[in-house]
Each structure stands twice: as C-alpha cells, then as structure tokens.
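#struct-pred
JK: can someone run the complex with aspartic acid? inputs below
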Amino acid sequence: MRTKKEIIVMKFGGTSVGDTDKIKRVAEKVIKAKEIGNDVVVVVSAMGKTTDELIDIASRITNEPSRREMDMLLSTGEQVSISLLSMAIQAMGYDCVSLTGSQAGILTDEVYSNAKILNINNTRMIKEIRNNNILIVAGFQGITTGGDISTLGRGGSDTTAVAVAATLDAKYCEIFTDVDGVFSTDPNIVVEAGKIGQLSYDEMLELASSGAKVLHLRAVEFAKKHGVVLHVRSSFNDNEGTWIMDDEKITEKMERPIITGVTYDTNEVKISVFGLKDIPGIASRLFGALAAENINVDLIVQNVSERGSATISFTIKSEDINLVKKVLENLKENLDFADFNMDPGVAKVSIVGAGMQTHPGVAARMFEVLANNDINIEMISTSPIRISCVIRKDKVRLAVKILHTSFKLDK
Ligand code: ASP
Ligand code: MG
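RT: done, structure tokens with the ligand placed:
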C-alpha cells in the first residue's frame, strides 16, 4: 500500500462543466492537482442548466410531481457529469472512478428536494483513494435510510463537497466557480469592488445570508461546524481566490478594513399589519402562524401608537408573497387587526465585517452616509458583525456604491 498523501477536494459548478470542452479543461486541472502529489476527490454539479431543464420537463407532465420522483429525476443531471468527467480523466491516462451519492455513502433524511446529510459512510471512497484512483463524486444527491435517492436543495453540490472534505479529513475544499472569489460587493454595480483574500466563517455566513450569491449557505455552516477550510476560486484561471476559515487562523488581520463587504437583496417584500392590539401574545400568534407555513421572516419592526394600537412591519422573500397573503387573510378575524399591506418596492442593503466588533460608531456612520444621499431608512437590523437597512428598491445601487466608497473598500 502507498504512503498516505494529503487529500484535497475540488468542486466544480454547472458552468465549469457546461460542455465537453469545459469538462476536458476540468480534467486537466484535476490531473495537475494529482500530479503535485495530492489525493484528489472531485465533486461536480450537473452540466450547465441541466437541472433547470429537468424541472421544466417535469412541469410539462404535471404541476404537482411527487418530491420523491422529482429527486429521482434531478439526480440524473449529476450522474451525466460525473461519468463524462471520469471518462475524460481516464482518456488522459489516469485511474479514475465516479460514484453517485449513494455509492459514496452519503446518507440523508427523507425530506426530498431539500434533504439534510445525516452521515457519510466513507468506506468505499477511502478504498478507491487507497487504490490510487482520482475520485469523482456526484454533488447534490444522497440516499435516504430507506434506500431512496434524495437531493439536497438547489445549489447543494457545495454542501456535498464540504461534507466529503469533512469526512475524509481533507486539507481543504476548493470551490471552483465562474468568478475569481468573494468580492467586497457586486462588481456589476461597483467596478472598484475587489476580491477578498481571507474571510472568517462568520463573515461568509453573514455575506451569504444577506445577499452574496457565491456559496450555498448550508455549505458554509457545515464548513464552520467541521472546520473545513474553503477556497473559492475561478475555474477559468489559476489565480488565488478567497480563503474562508476560522477567525483565529486569519493572517491578514493587520490590514483588515473595518467592513469586509457590502451586500444587497432586492428579493424582499415589506409587510405591514395595522391596528393590532398592544397586548401580550399578539406577536407570538402572528409569527407563529407564519412559521407554521414555513415562511421565513427577516427584519421586524413594531410601532405602538398612543391609543394602544400597534403596527408590526416585517420582510419576507418575494416567492412567499401569496402564501403570506393567505395566512394574513385567515388571521384577520381571529387576531382582530385592522388591515395589512404588502410593499414589494423595498430592498435590503447590508454592511458586514468582523472589524465592527472593536470599532464603535459603524452603524452611525452607515446611517449618516445614507442620509447624506437622501436615502430613507425604513427598517434596521443588526448582528455583532452586520448592519442591515431596508430602503427603497430604486435607491439600492446608489446605496451600495456610496457605502462601498465610504468604508474605503474601493480598490
Ligand atoms: N445541479 C444542482 C442545481 O443546479 C446542484 C448544484 O448545482 O449545486 O441546483
Ligand atoms: Mg447548478
């Protein structure tokens, strides 16, 4: 048997394996990593827009496909890409084996289309690695304890990669994508946005949950829990990307700005419920009814008038708007409130940075910058390392630009 090498996990998204030429290029990248002396495990997504196309095909059969059959269907996308990539690597003269989620031992719960990984039985993966194979694992899929195919939710291949890296005790997990790394804000809005060199898990979690789209949120949570070091980088060049790790391991602390990134989310709707009684239990019943329908509520603000009636405003994701409307209409009589309205004209802008924990006055500065540009703040929420404001949607680009400049993030 060979001496044990270090394992690295490389994950390639749909655009990186979008056609056969791209698959060959990925094969070359993987071989290069193997040649340097690592054991390499690759996780891939379905080619290009395959998953969307499969969903579209199903919708032409029925509006209500069962979730079990949907997972059966969607998992085929990744089965195509793993086999083709494995063939490409074999054709270049290297030993390579592809494994479906089930063959790789990825056990999940039975929540089809949004399953959670419960456990990984890594025996097969380790056997193939010991035999000096490059290993290709299908992203996004697993097998339930009952033996059915499950999928992990859209974008779930990131989570597969991190989970595989954790169970194999990999040195790090590289996420190859179509951008150079995590940026200080959206480069489509601010051309001066720069690539961030290093981030803590907590900063990445706040960036991802407040609008940055590079990484699947659940993958970052998983990485944090298991201490998997992540490297987000481009699959189209060899540039260093963004490293994400434990705050204590970050070496760039000295030159770290107070704010790491500015994010925005235009996918929010503001709901206001008027004329609520100002007595105990009202908020609990209102939000309890929303929670019972699995509706995620983001920011919440309550105002109480002198006459003791209250207005509660909160934001939700736009895709939940019809469901929320139904819940509130059903609740109106029972909870005895006057009315409600739904305002899709809002957006959320956030600043994120671990540096704000040690620098007072960051919130005041954010509000001042917005005020100086005539941007009204409708709601505010904070975490120890994030401040978010709900503003008018048509001001969001301006807000992102001026905040990026004011907090000295322009490169
Ligand atoms: N192919 C799946 C999707 O498009 C999983 C992934 O890309 O990570 O959502
Ligand atoms: Mg995809």
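RT: quick notes.
The CA atoms of residues 293 and 323 lie 8 Å apart.
The chain has two domains: 7-178, 262-406.
JK: thanks, will look after standup
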